[in-house]
Design brief:
13-stranded parallel sheet; 14-stranded parallel sheet; about 700 residues; mainly beta
């Protein structure tokens, strides 16, 4: 039996040795085998200590992206990966774990990592069975120094007129997406620290949005945060405001609070959000930085509550104050901040009280938004609203669109006769995207409506999608208009009515970069005040009014040397009354230029008969044309009784014409209607008048 066994063994060995060449041949035929996977490594863990349930990040190499394929243990106690990548695993310390090494096993290969120290469950965890506070209570500073006094893992609701008072120096950590502090049903939160001993409210980790935040939904008079640090909040949206924010007033006029000398930073969503109608009683000395959205989200009416002593850091995710729309109905001042105010709703922001804007402030507007003085439902309703925006040369006030370029927002509309309406050292750009008032037919950076009054000095109106400025109604006026720049607008620098022309000053700039380099003038009646018209750096281009009216002059009109007046086809100047040709009239036209600086009356287009001309129905000796160039009139008859030419004299008109050039009339150079006219003309030049130079000669 023994020999047989040896024989069998030798036989097996022989077979094996014979098979080896075949195996080698197969290896040569099939190429190299798949290499073994690289073993995992653990380079670090964070944190290295904490209680059971602590979230730990394991950094290393060669982990499986399928979390279930990583066998993770804390000193032998298994844990499941919450997320997995090749270089990082995130896991919670499992129940029952003890202090020891962290290991990860992948594809049968194990990596040993650092020791994780399991700490005992802290004794400062708040008892969430008492999450509704219905009787007043104080949370004292129970741990010395920087030790955490309370860990809160639920939503604390303060109701029933109770007040939760948090003492100076208290440190609270919040854990879980439901945790936070809420007041409602009359409850109050009084958290008042000191400069040397602030209250600190933070997450259990430094990740933004670890907890919800602080929500005031009550009007308790003691709602106040002072010398409080709020960090890592904003996890979920408030059901009241429907936004994320670290500190919120959330229930309209049912919420009230003060926020003073607080630091609100490293939060998800807004640093502070104030719901429409909420009463922010005091807000000063705060630092709001590094939040995911704007430092403050607020409604228009509450803007004056934001103080200039607070810091609204540009390192917030949205480097502006986000302004939502409601009616500004209480007098107040908008202060200059280090970030702009951005009006984000595509609608008109109505001002129904006295709005003052501090020098250096910047206001940005969304594409469909406008700033409008007056009542929402009525273009011309009586209003005591005012806009007082007085900057300085060093600190101008800026109104502009969020987007750059012409016509990126609607503009500013003024419907108020308040003496406080002032725009001084203001830069208004990018308006004119559409109409501001219901009755508007033209768009502009600035529109004056109804009986508006405004003072504009040292300001720039530029890059409008329409005009730089429009005076929409004949009853509106510029109280003062001095040293302004109206440049780079798609249409004209200004559109207004004839009798408003003397409100423009010669020191302002009207020419540069405008699509229509002229003052757009609508016909109207000069019947209240005498007017002197001075030369600007662009012509006056005269059309008819929306009622089809040309320029009627019933007062003394004086035109100074160098003035250029261009007339559209149906327009002209007529001394007289719109309702009758030959009524007594004290109106006069005195246009006396010089040889070096003549006065020009002409059509918009060149040639014979391109506008109506000048009509004289006045017997005053003040009617005087000297060194004038009058061309292209006579497109149609001037008066009901007739007359057609560059100049038409009606009834008992008196006129002196000297050293003028009168050419290219569609009819007569000078025509007469109804007899009795007194013309004194000397040293004039006539040429190319279709019917002749002077009728009757």
């Amino acid at each position: 039996m023994k020999i047989t066994s040896i024989s069998k063994a030798l036989t097996k060995s022989a077979i094996l040795f014979a098979f080896i060449p075949l195996l080698l041949q197969c290896k040569e035929d099939n190429g190299d085998p798949t290499p073994d996977p690289e073993p995992p490594t653990i380079t670090s863990i964070s944190p290295t200590s904490g209680p059971l349930g602590t979230e730990v990040t394991i950094n290393g190499t060669n982990f499986s992206t399928d979390g279930t394929q990583n066998t993770i243990q804390f000193n032998g106690t298994p844990a499941a990966a919450k997320s997995a990548s090749v270089s990082q695993l995130v896991v919670d310390v499992p129940s029952g774990a003890t202090t020891g090494n962290v290991t990860v096993k992948v594809n049968g290969q194990t990596a040993n990592g650092p020791v994780f120290t399991v700490e005992e469950e802290p004794d400062n965890i708040y008892d969430c069975s008492e999450s509704e506070i219905t009787a007043s209570i104080t949370w004292e500073d129970i741990s010395a120094g920087d030790a955490v006094d309370y860990v809160i893992q639920c939503a604390i609701s303060i109701t029933n007129d109770a007040v939760l008072t948090i003492a100076p120096g208290v440190i609270i950590q919040f854990e879980g997406e439901e945790s936070g502090l809420f007041t409602s049903d009359g409850g109050g939160l009084k958290a008042i620290g000191t400069e040397d001993n602030p209250i600190r409210l933070m997450g259990t980790s430094e990740q933004k949005g670890v907890w919800q935040g602080i929500y005031f939904a009550s009007t308790h008079p003691e709602n106040r945060l002072e010398y409080v640090e709020v960090m890592h909040a904003g996890r979920t949206a408030s059901t009241q405001s429907n936004v994320k924010g670290a500190v919120q007033l959330t229930r309209g006029d049912e919420s009230r609070a003060s926020i003073v000398n607080c630091t609100i930073q490293d939060n998800d969503g807004y640093g502070v959000f104030i719901t429409e109608g909420s009463n922010l009683e005091a807000f000063s000395g705060n630092v709001i930085a590094a939040n995911e959205l704007s430092p403050v989200g607020i409604y228009f009416s509450n803007l004056p509550m934001l103080d200039a002593t607070s810091i609204y850091s540009p390192d917030n995710g949205q480097a502006y104050i986000e302004v939502k729309n409601d009616i500004f109905d209480t007098d107040g001042t908008v202060h200059r901040l280090e970030v702009p105010f951005r009006f984000v709703d595509n609608s008109r922001y109505y001002v129904e009280s006295a709005l003052t804007i501090e020098a250096g402030a910047t206001l940005e507007f969304a594409s469909g938004s406008a700033l409008r003085l007056g009542d929402q439902g009525n273009d011309c309703g009586l209003t005591t609203a005012s806009l007082n925006a007085v900057g300085t040369e060093e600190s101008p006030i800026t109104f502009k669109g969020v987007a750059d370029g012409n016509g990126s927002w609607l503009g500013i509309g003024i419907n108020s006769s308040s003496p406080n309406n002032q725009l001084m050292y203001c830069n208004i750009s990018g308006g004119g995207a559409g109409k501001i008032f219901n009755a508007d037919h033209e768009s502009a950076n600035l529109v004056l409506q109804c009986e508006s009054r405004v003072k504009i000095q040292n300001s720039t109106l530029s890059e409008s999608g329409g005009h730089g400025m429009v005076i929409h109604d004949e009853d509106a006026s510029l109280v003062e208009f001095e040293e302004n720049m109206l440049i780079n607008n798609e249409a004209s620098p200004i559109a207004l009515y004839f009798h408003q022309l003397d409100q423009l000053d010669t020191a302002s700039a009207y020419e540069e970069g405008n699509g229509n380099p002229y003052i757009k003038v609508s016909g109207s009646v000069l019947d209240e005040n005498d007017m002197t018209l001075a030369a600007l750096d662009v012509p006056y281009r005269v059309g008819v009014s929306t009622l089809g009216r040309i320029l009627y002059v019933e007062r003394a009109l004086t035109i100074l040397p160098g003035v250029i007046m261009e007339f559209e086809t149906a327009s002209g100047i007529k001394l007289g009354n719109p309702s009758a040709d030959c009524v007594d009239n004290t109106g006069s036209l005195n246009a006396v230029g010089t040889a070096d600086s003549p006065i020009t009356f002409k059509g918009v287009t060149e040639g014979q008969g391109t506008w109506r001309g000048i009509g004289i129905n006045s017997s005053t000796s003040a009617n005087h044309l000297a060194f004038c160039e009058i061309s292209g009139g006579g497109s149609e008859q001037m008066y009901n009784a007739g007359g057609q030419g560059n100049i038409v004299m009606q009834c008992a008109a008196t006129l002196t014409v000297e050293n003028c050039i009168i050419i290219d009339s569609g009819a007569w150079g000078i025509d007469f209607v109804s007899g009795g006219n007194a013309l004194n003309e000397t040293d004039n030049t006539f040429d190319n008048n279709a019917s002749g130079d002077i009728a009757g000669e």
